[in-house]
Amino acid sequence: MEIKPVESRLTAISMDGLFEQAMRRSNGSRPVVNLQDVDFVDPYSAASLCVLVEYLRSETDETPRILLPKNLNVRGYLRRMKVWEQLDGLADLDGSAGGASGSSDSDILLELTRIDSKSAIEGATEHLLQIVSANLGYKRKSINAVTNTISELCFNVLDHSETTGWAVAQRYHRANGSRFLAIGVADCGIGIKKSLGTRFRTGGWSHFDAIINALKKEFSRFPKRGLGLHMVKKIVFDFGGNLHIRTGDCRLYLAAKPQGISGAVFPGTQVSISLSEHAGA
Amino acid sequence: MKSVVTMEAVLTLRRESPLGVLATSEQKILNGREIGARLFDKIVRQLEQLRSECVVPLSFNGIEFLDYSCADEFLGRLVRRIRSGELEGKFVVIQEASVSVLENIEMALKERDYCCPVLDDAGRIHIVGKVSEPLLRTYRFALERRTVTTGDVQEHFRHENLATSAASNRLVALCKMGLLYKVQEGPSDHGGRQYVYEAVG
């Protein structure tokens, strides 16, 4: 069974296609994830690839095989992002995981990090704070926003998903000189609807309803909580960014007006955020 | 309209020594609600040991990061406790917090419609969180005077044609927010009684 992206760029949109292929897989065959034609992977996709591999392992009892990108820049970039390091042991990597250092139009803020404990979140936070103190030209307010976002989303993984996940962040430079920060946090857990279902009657909800409610203040499986996603949404708006939240069969795209896009049902929750570094800084 | 308070307004709130939020050996990065809950429990226990009618500076010295959830669980709950009166005349003021930490505290408090005084490095008090402009002006006036009455407020803001009830409402509101403390009752110039409020800060 081969799972292969339709597009060469892996983003929140094209990852939907991979999730759908994974859900339509035939039983009995060893899954192969073919990334050979991929020439771009954003943070959301890097984290979601790990979720995809985890899912395939659990569903097939086989170790998935990953065909690495032919593009050496992409291969090297993913090495710098520690994607291959995280996938090592979860999948068989077909091809050398080395490669060129990667393009210079992006700066890695946080390499792909497994979120499996509070200390992992503390480590990620400390890493991001060191970037500020290293005075690498990041705006303090931007890094504070990224750090808060990652902290909130990662604690959501630990507190609500009933499993572990991954987080990653980086900065991109546009051709016009502006910069934006991109964050990806993903897990393969119980998903938002089931998490909220421990406290609310979610039987009649769609996955879209679940995301919309989760973004509201004080909407949480735990009473008197529920600030996390609400604050993340505020940060995104303050920084003129956008937000994808995928859970179940729905990926919500939030910029000016929430837009729900339907796809295959896939477990867990995957979040993509981009923040303009100029705005709000 | 002049306020005549024949009793000398005595400052009631004493300033206690700062309580450090962070123990020396503790981590400097505070993420998540569990840590926030531990900080809340620790600080409340220490506050309960103190005699009432005090202002306690909370020192955030050494804290490099405090996320929204931690700030909400710690300070959000603490401010709620102060506002409800459960801490019996004990108040807090934030000090030695970095810009980022203060930013996150403010975001968390604003979400709950709460606020808290902050003592900056220059010894000035300002407010983080949510407070309306009229109430903020009234609080600043109270800080300058240290104690105020309804009559004082009405006189100071006479350009706003503030009615007695409106001036009184401001003081009551600030009291509920934990920014003023009702300390004593004294005669008013109407021949009745009025309360004296002391600024928390």
Write a structural description.
The complex is a heterodimer of chains A (281) and B (201). By secondary structure, chain A is of the alpha/beta class. Chain A has helices at residues 12-23, 43-60, 72-80, 83-87, 118-133, 140-161, 191-196, 207-214, 228-238; strands spanning 2-3, 9-10, 32-34, 40-41, 65-67, 92-94, 106-115, 165-173, 179-187, 242-254, 259-276. In chain A, 38% of the residues lie in helices and 26% in strands. Chain A has a 5-stranded antiparallel β-sheet with strand order 7-8-9-11-10, sandwiched between helices. In chain A, strands 1-3-5-6 form a 4-stranded parallel β-sheet. In chain A, strand 8 and strand 9 form a beta hairpin. In chain A, helix 1 runs parallel beside helix 2, helix 5 packs antiparallel against helix 6 and helix 6 packs antiparallel against helix 9. Chain A starts with a strand and ends in a 5-residue tail after the last strand. The mean pLDDT of chain A is 87. Chain B has 201 residues and is α/β, with parallel strands linked by helices. Chain B has 6 helices and 11 strands. In chain B, helix 1 (32-48) packs parallel to helix 2 (68-84), helix 2 packs across helix 3 (99-111) and helix 5 (150-156) crosses helix 6. The longest helix of chain B is centred in the N-terminal third of the chain and has 17 residues, at 32-48. The interface between A and B is medium-sized, with 22 and 19 residues.
List the helices and strands and how they pair.
The complex is a heterodimer of chains A (281) and B (201).
Chain A: E1 2-3, E2 9-10, H1 12-23, E3 32-34, E4 40-41, H2 43-60, E5 65-67, H3 72-80, H4 83-87, E6 92-94, E7 106-115, H5 118-133, H6 140-161, E8 165-173, E9 179-187, H7 191-196, H8 207-214, H9 228-238, E10 242-254, E11 259-276
Helix pairs in contact in A: 1-2, 5-6, 6-9
Chain B: E1 14-15, E2 19-20, E3 29-30, H1 32-48, E4 54-59, E5 65-66, H2 68-84, E6 90-95, H3 99-111, E7 115-119, E8 125-129, H4 133-145, E9 147-148, H5 150-156, H6 164-176, E10 180-187, E11 193-199
Parallel strand pairs in B: 1-4, 2-4, 3-5, 4-6, 6-7
Antiparallel strand pairs in B: 7-8, 9-11, 10-11
